[in-house]
Amino acid sequence: MLSPPKAWHPRTSHESEVEGQKFRAASSLIPVFAEARLWNSRNPTIDDLVLTNEELEKVLSDQESPLENGTNETLGKPPKFILISVFGEPESGKETGHELLARTKCLSKILHLAGLRDQRHVSRFINNKIPCTYSHVEYEGDGETPVCLTILFLCPKRSNNILGAVRVDIESRNCFAFVSSRFEVDNQDIISRCRRNVDLLRINPLYLLVFIYENRIQRWTDWFEESWQSIVEAETATNMILPQWRLSKKQLNTISDSDRLLTQLHKTHIELSNSHGVISYGHAFGDACNKAAIQIEEYRKSLGYTPLPTRDLRSLEEDLNMMHSQSGSIKSRLAALSSRLSGMINVSFNLIAKRDSKVNVAIAKLQARESRTVKGISILTFSLLPATFLAVR
Predict the structure, then answer these.
(1) Rounded CA gap, 113 and 246, in Å?
(2) Which residues are CB-neighbours of 212 under 8 A, at least 6 positions away?
(3) Phi, psi of 265, rounded to the nearest 5 degrees
C-alpha cells in the first residue's frame, strides 16, 4: 500500500508531489476543491451522500478489507460494487467547502483501492492529459497469478473530461471505481444509470464502463448536433439548399454577410477538427472495454473460477458493440459535414474574391475615366494658350 505523504500543498504552477514525484495534471484533472459522492450497489437508492475529507478517509478504510476479501465465489453472493465520484470546477476557483483531494492521504488511498500501487502507474495516471484507455494487471506477490485488473481512462469532450479507474478483483469480481469529472451533471448521470441498472452491476461490475460510454456518446452527440445545426443554417442563409430553418431576420442578416459567414465557418471547422479526434478515441474506448471484459473471463477460467455465463458476457459485449456502432455513425457524419463545410468555405472565398474583383474592375474603370479626363483637360488647355506661351526652340 502506498504510504501517505506528509502533506499536500497545491502550487501556483499546478504541481503537487506524492512520494517525491511531481504531478502536474492533478490540479486540472482532479479538482482540488470538490465534492465526493459514494454510491454502493448494496444501497442503490442512496446517491446524495456528500463526503467531507474525514468522512471519505473513513469510508475508504472501512471498504478496503471487504473489497479485497474474495469470498463471493464460494458463497455465491453478487460482487460488491463501490463508486466514489468526485466533481468540481478547478478553473473557476469556486470552493465547495470540501478540499477532498488537497490531502494526498485521500488520493493515495483512492488510487490504492483502484489497484494503482506502483509509483510508475500512479504517475502515469495522474500526469496524463491525453485521452487514452489502458489496463493494468496486478499479480500476487512475485508470482504469476493475476489478482485484479484495473481499467484506467480519460474520456474527452473538450474541457469536460471524465477521468476514472475501475478495479475488478478477478476471484470475487468485487469492484472499486473512482470517477472524476468537472461537472456534477455528468456524475449524476452516471450514478443514475447505475441505480437504474443495479441488477446488471451485480452480474458484472464492468457495466459501469457501458454507462460511462453512454454518457460520453450523449455528450458527443450534442456537440455534433451544434456543429451540424451551424452548417445547415449557413447553407440555408446562402441558398445552397432548400430552406430547412426559419431564421430570425437578425440571424439571417448576420450569416448572409460574407465576412461574418466565413468567420463562423472557420469556427465550425475548428470544432469539427477537434471532434474527429474525440470520436476516434470513442472507437478505441469501446475496443479497450471489450478487451478488458474478455481478459477477466480468461483469467478466471485459467484460475479455475466459475466463468460468467455466456449469455451475460454476450449481453455486455452487445451493449459495448452498440455504443461502438454509434460512435462509428457519428464519425461518418462528421466526415460528411467536414466535406460540406469545406465546400462552403471555398464558396465563401469565391464570393469574396468575386466581390473584390468587381471592386477592382470598378476602380480600374474609374481610373481610366479620370485619365481620359485629365488628358482632355490638358489638350484643351494647350489649345487655348497663346502662341507666345509656347516655348519654341
Answers:
(1) 55
(2) 153, 155, 162, 164, 179, 190
(3) -65, -35
Q: How far is CA 264 from CA 41, 180, 233, in A?
A: 47, 33, 11
Phi/psi of residue 129, nearest 5 degrees: -120, 0
C-beta of residue 58 within 8 angstroms of C-beta of residue 49: no
Helix-strand-coil split of the chain, %, nearest 5: 60, 15, 25
Q: Among residues 174, 153, 175, 149, which one has the least CA distance to residue 163?
A: 153
Task: Report yes or no: 60 and 106 within 8 Å, Cβ to Cβ.
Answer: yes
The tens digit of pLDDT for each residue in 151-198 reads: 988 887 666 788 888 999 998 888 988 888 878 888 889 988 998 998
Give me the count of residues in the chain: 393
**CA distances from residue 129 to 76, 89, 162, 210 in whole angstroms, order as listed:** 40, 16, 11, 22
126-164 pLDDT, tens per residue? 777 788 888 888 888 888 889 889 898 888 766 678 888
Q: Which stretches of 114-234 are assigned E, i.e. beta strand? A: 132-139, 146-155, 162-169, 175-181
Q: How far is CA 186 from CA 34, 191, 265, in A?
A: 14, 9, 30
Spans of all domains in the chain: 1-202, 206-381
- For residue 112, pLDDT beyond 70: yes
C-beta separation of 313 from 297 below 8 A: yes
Strands 162-169 and 175-181: antiparallel
The amino acid at residue 198 is V
Q: pTM score, two decimals?
A: 0.74
Q: How many CA atoms lie within 13 A of 274 on its CB side?
A: 13
List all residues 6 or more positions away from 301 whose beta carbon is below 8 Å from its beta carbon: 307
Closest CA to 165 of 155, 156, 178: 178
Torsions phi, psi of 264, nearest 5? -65, -40
Q: At residue 97, does pLDDT exceed 60?
A: no
Amino acid at 96: T
Q: Read off the amino acid at residue 275.
A: S
- Residues 104 and 16: beta-carbon distance below 8 Å: yes
